[in-house]
Specification:
The structure holds 3 protein chains of 3 kinds. Chain A is built from 5 helices and 5 strands, in the order E-E-H-E-E-E-H-H-H-H. By secondary structure, chain A is an alpha+beta fold. Chain A has 2 domains: 77 residues, Ubiquitin-like (UB roll), CATH 3.10.20; 72 residues, Orthogonal Bundle (DNA polymerase, domain 1). Chain A has a 5-stranded mixed beta sheet, with helices on both faces. Chain B folds into 3 domains: 47 residues, Uridine Diphospho-n-acetylenolpyruvylglucosamine Reductase, domain 2 (2-Layer Sandwich); 108 residues, Uridine Diphospho-n-acetylenolpyruvylglucosamine Reductase, domain 3 (2-Layer Sandwich), CATH 3.30.465.10; 102 residues, CO dehydrogenase flavoprotein, C-terminal domain (Enolase-like, domain 1, 2-Layer Sandwich), CATH 3.30.390.50. Chain B has 11 helices and 14 strands. By secondary structure, chain C is an alpha+beta fold. About 12% of the residues of chain C have low confidence. The chains are: A alpha+beta, B alpha+beta, C alpha+beta. Chains in contact: A-B, A-C, B-C. Chains A and C meet through helix 2 and helix 3 of A and helix 1 of C.
């Protein structure tokens, strides 16, 4: 017996049916078709699957999909506005903050959660914001620098 | 096998379902239960949830704090009145985990998890159980000794506010800023005329469940928090502990470093950046 | 940011570089930041089936019986895959270049040799259904004694691990049980050395732990072919391995790799493709075989642990006159690529240093651990760790600055290496000089003036008799301008005997024994020897 759920994904209403116990990660990828979310562990330990639910970072692999009904979910597929990249995306490119790219969607969402709440983070704030996201390639420094760059460029744009 | 998900607006009904349904497990934040579901844990057939507002309620009065079992670490971090608990809540996973991890979930988290439960133990917390004949209240250490038996649903925890600056916490991890505990120490160190009166010390990851360091507490009674004063407590720091080997640390290592970190905590030495 | 020291070796280089020295954006960076880089799993199929593998819980056991009847009937199960279903159920990865014996089954038959070894496949409509069916399988085992230590494994009476290699180690050209290097006479040189440093080093197995686990999806195509989306780092290698195991012509397989979510060497073993393809063939449906995080840690191959013994004979003036290396690679239960790692290791000994007497014995040993594989310079990186720790200890033993100690012993152009190749285009000295400059690490004048292009070749061969070439070391506690980090080790007691005469020049090098391999491959061109192929004509 599947349960119908409807929620906002990157600003658009989507609806699907989920099995009992289905997690949000598999629902997004396999039912809804948003392949921009990646899965690394299905244990809630690596942070790769990080999405935003109502603006706060959540691990989609250990989130019961049906709890999202009526809520707002954001994934990396919704970051850019048409042809324009989000400042975080541009900053990651400039700073070579990705190599294999697999942790990148989760990192971007964790960073977005930070900047949406705190547009002027310290380095320590950034480290805390991504401390739940494992990267096996970059050594994290390029990512931290990219997030700080994005914050600075964003504030310059708004000034 | 399909899993059934049942959501109850009233906590008492959730508690009933938990004891009546076959293979029922209560879902709060999901960090433990959803992982088990993903791994096709055969013991989970029904997921029980509740949307009862009391479950996520934080109530802070002059003397007493009551936290609904569904209160998340993030919610605690957002509550200024609970600033003494912020070091503990901040140490439970990264930001995404904190948005999901709950007070109640931490009570059931197996070692080496459960640092928040250890902090509650040092705060002399009591646990309110839902279902059955109304609510039952029991001391946390009694609850921890029987948490694996039977289906219980915790509705809230309560404790007396500690004196300001009397509560201390350290979590020792290999990865910074967040990581699974090698061990954690929570301590309530009230003083009267500069001497310890009624200390409470609890350890995380030093046994199958959070454990009180009662011998160390007794050894601190009436003493000053300086090198000479804490020495007797350090000598019995290990009493009551039964650490085990796991992927994070060996039992030997945990035993070796426990008195070092206890000493630093009791002396109020700035916890080192890298423990 | 990036600094080019074009002044160094300027006369040897044609410096009209266009790309080198300029930052270049990765071609997949835009895909990464938009979540559109295509990993193997970024495809959806309406009737996708899921392959899960039942694995050995024991490090070493005989399989007495497997009862999968209940699992075959379980809801959602489409097919059970047994060892007998695998067309070619014995392989070794490097059989593709005729190196080594087929020793590893895709699904275990009578014996399991490491914890996590695959035994049975279950193909079902969901991962959950497959896992629930797996819980219904009954396997009975007779546990066997297991061995986890390379030296224990080589002792007489140790459990035999790999049936294809009853003598415990990999066999090169069906004759040699290890890789061997001999140059000069190390034993004689030790007797003449002022200091002998004999140390043991140990590396643990290291798991790559990529954020994306190993996996593949095999999809039946319209004309008897299969499209395989895979996480592999080695597309054609995996294709050919899958073709062999499935007894299919390789042109029936269309492999699509793309973006690897972290490889580091851990996605070259073709762990999932062969059985995913077999499952697709047997069911007619697309099948995904994806490792869980737990499987990635337990079953995913690590870089093998290594135990390395290094013995150096060092003169008081800092010259290393003899080096012996004995190394054991823990290949785990099967060969995979460890045979090749050992060749690389032997080729790297004694490190980038001119040492007139070198002896090395490197073994590829089988134990009941997860089979090891490539990882970031496997065969060399662990050895370098050991060699460089040894260099630091040697420097301390003679009371010399560790950087100067290395520069003194470094290859120079024209030196003869232990592998009987002339050293060319050496640059360790220059790299050390620039590093010292950047780190404010004081070097003595003679060392700041050293050059890779001076002092090599004949000058060094006779250096044994000419101690004045090497500058006398300063007093053991010489204080440089800055305070560099010091490595502190226990110093071995210096030889009590009075200063000895200089050691004799290395004896004439004996001709290298011809390898016993038969030529393989092409039949024209001059004969060439390669450690992997043996003697062959190219």
């Amino acid at each position: 017996m599947k349960t119908p759920i409807q929620f906002r994904l990157n600003g658009e209403e989507v609806a699907t049916f989920v099995e009992g116990g289905a997690n949000l990660l598999d629902t997004l990828r396999e039912s809804v078709g948003d392949l921009s979310v990646k899965g690394g562990c299905w244990q809630g330990t690596c942070g790769t699957c990080t999405v935003l639910i109502d603006g706060v970072p959540r691990l989609s692999c250990v989130t019961l999909a049906e709890t999202c009904a009526g809520h707002s979910v954001e994934t990396v597929a919704g970051l850019r506005r048409g042809a324009d990249l989000h400042p975080l995306q541009s900053a990651f490119m400039e700073r070579f903050a990705a190599q294999c790219g697999y942790c990148t969607p989760g990192m971007l969402m964790a960073a977005k959660a930070l900047l949406d709440k705190n547009p002027n983070p310290t380095r320590e704030n950034v480290v805390d914001a991504i401390c739940g996201n494992i990267c096996r390639c970059t050594g994290y420094e390029p990512i931290i620098n990219a997030v700080l760059d994005a914050a600075r460029s964003d504030s310059r744009r708004r000034a | 096998m399909t899993i059934n998900v049942k959501t109850f607006p009233r906590l008492a009904d959730a508690a009933s379902a938990l004891s009546q349904e076959r293979g029922a497990r209560f879902l709060a934040g999901g960090t433990l239960v959803m992982r088990a579901v993903n791994e096709a844990d055969p013991s989970i057939e029904t997921i029980v949830r509740s949307t009862d507002p009391s479950f996520v309620n934080i109530s802070v009065s002059s003397g007493r704090v009551e936290l609904g079992a569904g209160v998340t670490m993030a919610a605690i971090l957002a509550e200024r009145e609970l600033s003494f608990l912020h070091p503990v809540a901040r140490a439970v996973g990264g930001p995404a985990v904190r948005e999901a991890a709950t007070v109640g979930g931490n009570l059931f988290a197996p070692s080496p998890y459960g640092d928040f439960a250890a902090a509650l133990l040092a705060l002399d917390a009591t646990v309110m159980l839902a279902g059955g004949v109304g609510q039952r209240e029991l001391p946390l250490d009694e609850f921890l000794s029987r948490r694996d038996r039977g289906a219980v649903l915790v509705s809230s925890v309560a404790f007396k506010r500690p004196a300001s600056d009397a509560f201390r916490f350290v979590k020792v991890t290999r990865v910074h800023p967040k990581g699974i505990s090698v061990l954690s120490i929570s301590a309530q160190l009230p003083t009267a005329s500069g001497r310890v009166s009624g200390a409470r010390i609890a350890y995380g990851a030093m046994g199958p469940a959070p454990v009180r360091a009662k011998a160390a507490e007794r050894a601190l009674e009436g003493r000053t928090l300086d090198s000479a004063g804490v020495a007797p407590a350090l000598a019995v720091a290990h009493d009551g502990t039964a650490p085990h080997d796991d992927a994070i640390a060996s039992a030997w290592w945990r035993r070796e470093i426990l008195p070092i970190h206890l000493r630093r905590l009791l002396l109020g030495e700035h916890p080192p950046r890298h423990s | 940011m990036l600094e080019f020291r074009k002044d160094i070796f300027a006369d040897e280089r044609d410096d009209n570089l266009k790309e080198v020295g300029q930052p270049t954006q990765r071609q997949d960076m835009l895909g990464h930041v938009t979540g559109t880089s295509p990993y193997y799993d970024d495809h959806r199929f309406a009737n996708l089936l899921h392959l899960k593998i039942l694995r050995s819980p024991h490090a070493h056991a005989r399989i007495r019986s497997i009862d999968d009847a209940a699992a075959a009937r379980a809801p959602g199960v489409k097919r059970i895959i047994r060892a007998a279903d695998v067309p070619v159920n014995l392989n070794t990865l490097l059989s593709l270049i005729q190196f080594g014996k087929d020793d590893e089954p895709s699904l275990a038959t009578d014996v399991v040799r490491y914890k996590g070894e695959p035994i049975l496949g279950i193909v079902a409509t969901s991962e959950r259904a497959a896992l629930e069916a797996m819980a219904l399988v009954r396997v009975s085992y007779d546990q066997l004694p297991a061995v986890f230590d390379v030296e224990e494994a080589m002792k007489p009476g140790a459990p035999s691990v790999n049936a294809a290699y009853p003598k415990i180690t990999f066999e090169y050209y069906n004759k040699y049980d290890h890789q061997k290097l001999r140059y000069g006479d190390a034993d004689a040189a030790f007797a003449q050395a002022d200091i002998v440093l004999d140390e043991r080093y140990q590396m643990s197995p290291i798991e790559h732990a990529p954020t994306e686990t190993n996996g593949s999806i095999a999809v039946p195509d319209t004309n008897g072919r299969f499209i395989v989306y895979t996480s592999t780092q080695a597309l054609f290698f995996s294709l050919d391995t899958s073709a062999k195991i499935n007894a299919m012509p390789s042109n029936q397989l269309h492999f699509i790799g793309g973006t690897v979510g972290g490889g580091f060497g851990g996605k070259v073993d073709t762990l999932t493709e062969p059985l995913a393809i077999l499952a697709a063939r047997l069911t007619g449906s697309p099948v995904r075989y994806r490792l869980s995080r737990h499987e990635e840690m337990q079953f995913g191959s690590p870089r093998g642990g290594e135990r390395i013994f290094i013995k150096d004979g060092i003169m008081r003036d800092g010259r290393i006159v003899a080096r012996t290396v004995r190394a054991y690679f823990d290949s785990g239960a099967y060969t995979r690529l460890s045979s090749y790692a050992v060749v690389k290791c032997a080729a790297h000994i004694p490190g980038p240093y001119t040492i007139p007497n070198v002896s090395a014995d490197v073994f590829c040993v089988f134990t009941n651990r997860t089979p090891a594989t490539a990882m970031r310079g496997f065969g060399v990186t662990a050895l370098d760790f050991a060699l460089e720790c040894q260099m630091d200890k040697g420097a301390t033993a003679v009371g010399m600055d560790p950087l100067e100690f290395r520069m003194l012993n470094a290859y120079r152009d024209g030196d003869m290496k232990a592998h009987r190749r002339e050293a060319k285009n050496c640059a360790l000295i220059e790299c050390a000089q620039v590093a010292a400059e950047k780190a404010n690490w004081a070097l003595r004048d003679e060392f700041r003036r050293m050059s890779s292009r001076q002092g090599g070749g004949a000058a060094r061969a006779g250096a044994a008799a000419d101690r004045s070439r090497a500058p006398a070391p300063a007093a053991p506690s010489h204080a440089p301008a800055s305070t560099p980090q010091r490595v502190s080790y226990e110093r071995p007691t210096p030889a009590a005997a009075p200063p000895r005469p200089a050691p004799p020049a290395p004896p004439p090098r004996s001709a290298m024994p011809p390898p016993a391999a038969s030529p393989a491959g092409s039949t024209h061109g001059a004969p060439r020897f390669s450690s992997v192929f043996g003697t062959r004509r190219r």
